[in-house]
Amino acid sequence: MKRLDHQSATSQRMQLRLQRGLHQDPSILLSDVSVASSQEYAYLIRTDIGGQEFWITFDTGSSDLWVVSSDCTNPDCQGITRYSSSSSSTLTLSNQPFELTYLVGSVLGTIGTETVTLGPYEISSQTFALANQTSGLALSYTGNSGILGLSFPPVASIPLTSGTPILDNLFTHFDDQHRFFAFKLGRNESQDISYSDSSLTIGELDSSLTNDTSQFAFTPVFASTPGEYDFWKLPIQQITINDQVLSLSRSLVRGAPSPIAVLDTGTTLILGPTADVNAFWYAIGTGGSTRYDQQTETWQVRCDRALDVRIKLGNSDTAKEYPLHPEDVNWAEVETQDGWCTGGIQANNGVDSGDWLLGAVFLRNVYVIHQGKTASNPPMIGLLNTTDPAAALAEFTSSRGQDPAPPPSLLRAGSSATELRDTLATCLVCGICGFLIGAIGIMIYRHRQQRRSQGRVHI
Known about the structure:
By secondary structure, the chain is of the alpha+beta class. It is 19% helix and 32% strand. It has eight helices and 26 strands. The chain has helices spanning 28-32, 139-142, 166-172, 274-284, 326-329, 360-363, 389-400, 417-454, and strands at 3-6, 16-20, 41-49, 52-59, 65-68, 92-101, 106-118, 121-135, 146-149, 180-184, 199-202, 217-220, 233-241, 244-246, 260-263, 270-272, 290-293, 298-302, 309-313, 320-323, 330-331, 340-343, 345-347, 356-358, 366-371, 380-385. It is globular and about 65 Å long. The strands form four sheets. Strands 13, 14, 15, 16, 19, 20, 23 and 24 form an eight-stranded mixed β-sheet that branches. Strands 3-4-9-5-8-7 form a six-stranded mixed barrel. Strands 11-10-25-26-12 form a five-stranded antiparallel β-sheet, with no helix packed on it.
């Protein structure tokens, strides 16, 4: 029997902190690890599972709760806090296996139930998984002991017949008005949680940020099939670079009138279709300020390249523009000695949950509400801009220096690489067809002239 107890009448603001990679080798991102698997930093939440405390990744891009077991001995599990089955009196293990594959990395283990305490809430008999083997998740790199997935139940790897995901158990506790969680991903890194500027609340807003939900722009969560939700996703209308519009390739998501973006706190960067990402960096690369590293398959940018990039999100009639801090586009978490930084937007055609993944480098620029389904509304996403583009640009320039490169220039305003390729192909086909039609016309004309000449009577 599941039970959710509210243990405190005080603020529900939970301890959420930014944890950067524990290894500070400046070459690791650009030489040894592909951009999709780079876990340079993660946002961790303190969670009690069976009376044992862990820091685990706060992830809106998955739906399962799992923690590393003391039985896990492969290198990815070393040096982190692991769950001990023998130390719990509330654990119930099944013989059902657990397997989960992320965009990068995988987990194997066993499904069970346990008492889970998240902030002021205690959930008894919560379904979760004990990970006996992990691969490619860089857990020891960030000191992360597992993942708390807060997306929708249909994408859970733990079958719904085995138990209810933690998000549904939490939302069931709240009335319609309070059936949401809100988060702000901060920029401050500190082992002392009191210095964290990150926030996660359930059922209420963080009063240090705002108490007014009317400040948010709300968009219904996109669903290919009405009423069936998988990820926290919404339409992305366009990207602008210094006020120039880069229109995006057509969506590959069924039923989507425009590209679909997934909000994913478990992903570091912004990931998008190769054609669009290439067009983005080509536009920015005036004056030789960008380059593509074939070895790591990443775009790099001169560390002083100052950009005003904005992403327009929402349905076409209510979409709103959200500016990115230049340091999120020009990512200096790892800087090479010759002045090149990693681009915060990278290509990845392996994303199947949507067309784009908007990871932490986008989410650090907004305060986000994820609203559950209510009697009158479908699930909703609320976004509140927290980045002043003018102030952010001044801060970037002060830190990185003046940008000597010419302004970005799109090949044609509003054209993506896909559209440009399609246009060139169309022109080429039209040119060839015109040439062939012209040649055939000339041949017919000459043939007729020859027949007329042969039919004349000479005196």
